[in-house]
Amino acid sequence: MSDLYAMRWKAVFDEDDFPERADSGRLSFVEESGNAYLNARQTSDVAVEQQKVIAADAVIFQFPLWWYSMPAVMKGWFDRVWAYGLAYGYKNAGNKYRYGEGAFKGKRAMLSVVVGGPEADYAPRGINGPLDELLFPITHGSLFFLDLTCFPPTPCMAVPHASPSKTCWLAKAAWRLRVERLFEDAPIPFRAQNGGDYPERHILSSQVAVGQTGLLAHIADIESVRQAAHHPFRGWPFS
Predict the structure, then answer these.
(1) Residue 97: what are its φ and ψ, rounded to 5°?
(2) Is residue 143 part of a domain?
(3) What is the mean pLDDT of residues 143-171?
(4) CB-based contacts of 42, cutoff 8 Å, min separation 6
(5) Mean pLDDT across 197-211
């Protein structure tokens, strides 16, 4: 368990993250991150968090939706913990191993998100936008990039206006089912970079997701994801 607020986690990724610089004249975060990680010169708080993820079979990220993303303290966790050589630049091969081939292959990840607005605002035509699209930079960019097998998020909607007793009971019941089935349910079917859909590792083949553009073209079956993401209190257990 990592309670970032209780830990007073340092959210800002800066020169203090590199006690022993590779280049004292110019601060290159990629170069210094790789140097610190590969030579075991990271700050102790970062190294501890990395070991937690390395030791885990599954990682759950729980946070309130702030301005359509994660709070700054959690963003700072990703900025600092996802080091070069571990999260990106895997095997010192640039972008060769990402989106389906990475350091965390075989591990699972899921988001537990508390949302202030009503479910309708995050429906496919809701004013705030679909929740699965809002969270795409996290599920696809921050998790699947490293080959973490990611699952549809588990949202608790309209929390400030909910009945404490009933809503808490429902949320706990839904969450219990999701955790119990974490190693059984189907993950978000993101397309793998090296699986043939991206011939040159950059752009989808013209034969894949024909007529589709944007974020959802990179998910093979978006409807199954939306069914799980937008109806947290319907149709239990989730599938």
Answers:
(1) -110, 95
(2) yes
(3) 84
(4) 17, 36, 50, 83
(5) 94
On the question of pLDDT at 131 being above 80, the answer is yes
The Cα 188–Cα 70 span in angstroms is 19
Question: At 58, which CATH number?
Answer: 3.40.50.360
Sign of CA dihedral 119, 64, 137, 176: negative
CA 164, chain centre distance (Å)? 28
Tokens of 171: 């949320």
| 5: in domain | no
pLDDT band at 222 (very low <50, low <70, confident <90, very high): low
Q: How far apart are CA 33 and CA 27, in angstroms?
A: 10
Whether the CB-CB separation of 34 and 83 falls below 8 Å is answered with: yes
Q: Are 153 and 231 in contact (CB under 8 A)?
A: no
